[in-house]
Specification:
With about 525 residues, the chain is an alpha/beta fold. The protein has a domain at about 360-455. About 50% of the residues lie in helices and about 10% in strands. The strands form 3 sheets. Strands 3, 4, 5, 8, 9 and 10 form a 6-stranded mixed beta sheet that branches. A two-stranded antiparallel sheet has the order 1-2. Strands 6-7 form a two-stranded antiparallel ribbon. The longest helix has about 30 residues, at about 15-45. The protein is globular, with a radius of gyration of 31 Å.
């Protein structure tokens, strides 16, 4: 770089800062190259090089640096007993007190204990017979639903979903404290008459999609009715929702984004989606020109396609599939979902709809998984990883303090890194592939509020993975729906700082349980805050 002092004097402060960042990046790259050359010279001379230490992950490393910077700002914790509610006071008398001693009050010593015991209530309901011969029986309390009380039902739901227990272990635990209950009865507590919970989980998804600036998505394997399926997670900092299906297609993902709606819609968003997916122009014109734009369900939509002469074909770009995806996406937007939101994923193809962003951790993992065939290849991989880590750390810093000049500098650094030629064909091909994803990897430059990774989704979906390992799968549709609903509600409660025990107590009408507002309302309030 050679600029005269005269031209430097004409630059503004922001331009000088951008130039400085570029120079520092070039200096770091040169330093990395020099260190690599020194190691190669030492190897050729037969000298012992530096020890090869396996680095930690990119996200963990950058988090560790941030924690180290904040290490000197620790807060002192208050007294542990300050948040406890005292249920019982016991005064202990001192023994062997000599005569003449003065009483100086009491010294507190707080003990937390738990009471777990069977509690059987017999309701003796009055029966009256009217002069007309009609029998009147005193009604049961509102919270009584069957022969198991609200606290027992609350405990079963809590232990199964949040405690990740199995039904046999729950039965063993309950019987050991004196409750006479069977596996079938526990199963009914978990799945029978849970339509309100399933409906609230659906409304949580609708509220989240309608209010979200971004969502992150992920999926994992799931067993249902003895078949392999897939459980899809959708969420952000305010909500989480799960849906288990037998398909992993983009069409299936769009149906999940429908959040229970079943209609199809032809509008500008639907037609734009079809054009982006390369649906034939004449077919798009037929759909756009027809007066019918909304279809109540899949049957009506398929009939419309048949009448227009759009039939299924055994090709990769099936026109019926693309048209159906477009109509579903049009309906999703029409219902007010994800209008300006970003969908953040790990680059799984079914999630590439709407305004799409990619996870940097998964992108860097592709480089990390490469195996070099010799020392030159391995060093090339490490050099690229080091540069990617630095870029990632600076992207994180940018998201906290975004400016146009820093965004331009980061774009230039991205180009320099992923245009690098390393003489390692596999790595060069991977860099070309990642360079092609530049718009999706750099979404944060336009939307600094969007995370750079999908760690939140992976953390959310872990409860489904643990449930699968413990219980294998579900056998009935109500069982599947209840599992997805309760795990989603549990995660949403945690994100809204609500105790899941309190949530269950309010929904089951446990006497004295704290009031918990509808979760969809809390999600909307959080999004507006």
């Amino acid at each position: 770089m050679a600029e005269s002092p005269r031209s430097m004097d004409g630059l503004g402060l922001d331009e000088l800062k951008a130039l400085l960042v570029e120079l520092l990046e070039e200096r770091a790259d040169l330093k990395t190259e020099i260190e690599a050359l020194r190691e190669e010279i030492a190897r050729l001379k037969g000298l012992k090089g530096r020890p090869q230490l396996r680095p930690s992950g990119m996200q963990q490393e950058t988090q560790a640096r941030a924690k180290a910077a904040r290490r000197g700002k620790k807060r002192r914790r208050g007294p542990k007993n300050s948040k406890l509610v005292i249920d019982e006071d016991k005064v202990l008398k001192a023994e062997g007190v000599p005569k003449g001693s003065r009483f100086k009050g009491t010294e507190d010593y707080v003990v937390q204990d738990l009471i777990v015991e069977s509690h059987v209530i017999r309701f003796r309901r009055e029966r009256w017979v009217t002069p007309e011969g009609r029998t009147i029986v005193a009604p049961l309390p509102a919270e009584i639903d069957g022969h198991f009380g609200p606290q027992l039902r609350r405990f079963v739901l809590m232990q199964y979903h949040q405690g990740q227990m199995t039904i046999p272990r729950l039965v063993t635990l309950l019987r050991s404290v004196g409750v006479d209950i069977s596996k079938r009865q526990v199963g009914r507590i978990l799945t029978a008459d849970k339509e309100d919970y399933v409906a609230e989980a659906r409304d949580v998804l609708r509220a989240g999609l309608a209010s979200a600036a971004w969502i992150s998505v992920d999926d994992t394997g799931a067993r249902h009715r003895g078949r392999n399926g897939v459980c899809t997670q959708i969420g952000n900092d305010h909500f989480t929702a799960f849906a288990t299906t037998f398909s992993k297609s983009r069409l299936n993902f769009l149906e999940i984004l429908h959040a229970g709606h079943g209609d199809y819609m032809i509008n500008d968003k639907a037609l734009a989606y079809m054009r982006r997916r390369k649906l034939a122009g004449p077919l798009i014109k037929r759909l756009a020109a027809h007066q019918s734009k909304r279809f109540r369900d899949e049957e009506a939509w398929r009939g419309h396609l048949a009448r227009l002469g759009i039939a299924e074909r055994n090709v990769n770009a099936d026109p019926v599939t693309i048209a159906s995806e477009g109509a579903l996406w049009g309906s999703v937007v029409e219902h007010g979902f994800l209008r300006d939101a970003v969908i953040l994923s790990d680059d799984a193809g079914q999630f590439n709809v709407g305004h799409h962003a990619l996870c940097w951790v998964h992108a860097e993992r592709l480089i990390h998984k490469l195996n070099g065939f010799n020392d030159l290849h391995r060093k090339a991989i490490e050099r690229i990883r080091t540069r990617v880590w630095r870029l990632y750390a600076d992207l994180q810093a940018y998201c906290h303090d975004p400016t146009p000049h820093r965004a331009a500098a980061l774009k230039q650094r991205f180009d320099r890194i992923f245009n690098t030629r390393t003489n390692f064909a596999s790595l060069d091909r991977l860099l070309d592939r990642l360079r092609a994803n530049k718009p999706e990897l750099l979404v944060a430059l336009e939307r600094p509020d969007v995370p750079l990774h999908t760690n939140g989704s992976e953390n959310d979906i872990r409860c489904q993975v643990i449930r699968r390992k413990i219980s294998a799968g579900t056998r009935s549709d109500p069982g599947r729906d209840c599992r997805d609903a309760f795990l989603g509600l549990m995660k949403t409660c945690a994100k809204q700082s609500i105790n899941f025990w309190d949530y269950l107590g309010d929904r089951i009408d446990v006497p004295g349980a704290p009031r918990v507002p509808p979760l969809p309302d809390l999600i909307r309030q959080s999004a507006r805050a």
